[in-house]
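Async update (no meeting this week)

Hi team, since we skipped the sync, here's where things stand on the single-chain job. The sequence we agreed to prioritize is pasted below, unchanged from the tracker. I ran it this morning and attached the output directly underneath so nobody has to dig for it. Comments welcome in thread, and please keep replies under the output.
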Amino acid sequence: MAHLVWDWNGTLFHDIDAVIGATNASFTELGLPEITLERYRELYCVPVPKFYERLMGRLPTDAEWKVMDETFHRHYWARAEAARLAEGAADLLAGRQAAGLTQSVCSLAPHDRLVPLLREHGIAGRFVRVDGITGPNGGGKAEHMVRHLAAIDGLDPARTVVIGDAVDDATAAAAAGARAVLYTGGSHSRTSLEQAGVPVVDSLAEAVAAADKLVA
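Output:
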């Protein structure tokens, strides 16, 4: 069975409604037109300034990006309090742990916000390691994932599967020598996820089943 590395935002944490609400609230402040969920998933990409380039027709300046980033996060954290775990997440995590299987969280969410959220939702004790971001993002998800896996004693990356909602989760998994399964409940459309060349599923239960098949 696989060691599972879970992404947080858009995967275990069903926060897409908070994301869209915060995006549109920040767009209103910035003088940009509102965006639908479908359009967001069609255009969203990382690094996030490229997403704004798709919307604006040009990359934001450094000064513009700072304002955009701060505005979005101010609205996001106000809305995230109402977000909940994805359907079936709590039971899947508990069942995995009860079966003696290991799992961890690797996220680009700020570590000092991520850990309290795991506690708040009653799942902090399900993981052998949790890594959010503690400083500048640096090399992004790929380097963060490499460090995350290296920090878990005895872990074999070849028997590790990353479950996430974005193409960069698959890219990060590959950089760390792991496999990936992508879930359609977050920020990317199925069409964009399928370009990663890894299994794409519509529920976390399907994601876990697909992950175990990958290392069988």
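Quick observations from my side:
The first strand starts at residue 3 and ends at 6.
The radius of gyration is 17 Å.
Reply here if anything looks off.
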